[in-house]
Amino acid sequence: MENGTMEDMDVLWEKVECKRYELCRNITPAKLTPYLRQCKVLDEQDEDEILNSLLLQAKANRTSRLLDILRTKGERGYVAFLESLEFYYPELYKSVTGKDPTRRFSTIVVEEGQEGLTQFLMNEVVKLQKNTKVKTLQNTELSRKTRTLEDEFKKLRLANQELQAFQQRYNKLREERNTYSDELLRVKDENYKLAMRYATLSEEKNMAVMRSRDLQLEIDQLKHKLNKVEEECKMERRQSLKLKNDIENRPKREQIFELERENEMLKIKLQELQSIIQ
């Protein structure tokens, strides 16, 4: 763009503002600041603020601050910014201006003379060399870290295999434990049933013992009664024999009738006693 344009700077910068989000998202400020300083639209303090300020942590915030500073520089800032886009970000240059980049050196740089242009190119070469050296160191460090990570990965893979083996062993032991737990519950249930059965049998046994004692007592009582009845029967027999002898010795009809009657009564009593014993 020529310096003698008749377009108002505010209008031109509004075109840039319309692309602010796209510019902030894609531009890396550190790539543009050396060129902008060479064009003297930024000074060392501006560059330090844009690249190193703690308030501008994100890349988009640094780019946004760069655009704000350039806008204060008027037409010179606008021209230098477009030329830096043309040199480093041709696609963004076309998005902002609608023109294809020509890759011409800045008229602002040319104004500084051949010496200034040479110094700018030397600074760019030194910057590229530094970046290359940094990249080489970074690649070396990354290679070292990669080897370290590979060794750690091998160790982790072996550890994972061991863990899988332990996991399989653990699962097997857990299955066995579950099996034994089920068996234990079954045995406990059987023991409980047996204990209940044993308690029932013990109670039945105690009741049987008590019943047996009662029956034994009744048997002893009946034996005692039986012995008593037998004694009575013996006495009655003796009396009967005596009466018989008396009858024989005293054969009177009245006495005989009396003795027979008594004998019949004794027989009846004897039958009653036998019934009781049975």
Automatic annotation (TrEMBL):
Which stretches are annotated as coiled coil? 139-276
Q: What organism is the protein native to?
A: Ameca splendens
Alphabetically list the UniProt keywords: Coiled coil, Phosphoprotein
Listed InterPro entries: CARD, DEATH-like_dom_sf
Superkingdom assignment: Eukaryota
Keyword hit for Phosphoprotein: yes
Q: Does the keyword Phosphoprotein apply?
A: yes
Please provide an example of a Pfam family that matches this protein in its UniProt record.
CARD
Which lineage ranks, top first, belong to the organism behind this chain? Eukaryota, Metazoa, Chordata, Craniata, Vertebrata
TM segment ranges: none
Q: What is this protein called?
A: Caspase recruitment domain-containing protein 11
Q: Which SUPFAM superfamilies match?
A: DEATH domain (SSF47986)
**Domain CARD, chain residue ranges per copy:** 8-100
